[in-house]
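Two quick folds needed for the group meeting slides. Do the first one here.
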Amino acid sequence: MKKIILLLGICLCLWACKTSQNSQSAVVQTHMDFEKIKENTVNKYWKLISIDGVEVKYDEGQLRESSLLLRNDSSFSAFAKCNSFQGKYILSHGNRILFKDVVSTLRPCKYAAEEYKITRLFDEVNSFSVKNDTLYFLKDKSVRLATFKNIVFE
């Protein structure tokens, strides 16, 4: 009986060591994945393509296209039809994103309804995903709020 208990104890110790190594490996893998996601997201020019599932239209009356730039120092700048935005953002594991301290210009604009949709993104988005050259802003990891395309200037 003592031999069986000893054998079970050894097996338990070996299993615990293996689980610990797997956990450490998962943490390292998660960190590497997070760094890759940051690399694919930060310091890139993102043009707004759609919001709430509706394609964003551009015309000559706009000052410039609606866009987003997330910088390495956790600051961001954005443009929505007529007004610019800036503030801070926090990226965290699990593809979480939070915008804070957002300020904007207050130019009168004939696109007020569309600008409002863009403005509320900063309050509603809490997660994101990146696939190839496309950035998706999500709410609760499932509701797609906006789609951006990475534009590379040469």
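Then this one, please, same format:
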Amino acid sequence: MDDGMTVSAVNDLWIDPDGHVLAATWGGCVFRAAWDGASWTQHCSGLTDSFLLALDGIGSGQVWTGTYDEGVFVSNDHGLTWAQASTGLPFNEVSSLLVVSADHVFVGGEGGGVYETLDGAGCRSPAAA
């Protein structure tokens, strides 16, 4: 079941509508496999932190990940490549994500509470109560 997975710590899993399983790993970036998990491939392109804590996405192929020390990253190609999306976020350790839509994401982290983006571009504000 773990053919190709080179790390032992998986912190979060997400399944996209096309049947790919993505794993946020501790020290190994993102691993991606078909539904059966028979063959995993590692994807680090664009990530500046390989220690991932959270993973969530939507059906369009957009996936978000939270890192231990570099904030939030977003992928628009099913987790193959990543770009940082932490502008305005007052903390770097992102331990939880909730993707509502491509433009609406909640981000939770160490020492900062819950923030949200309403434009999908990384501009965050404290989540309204």
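Slide caption for protein two: The mean pLDDT is 88.
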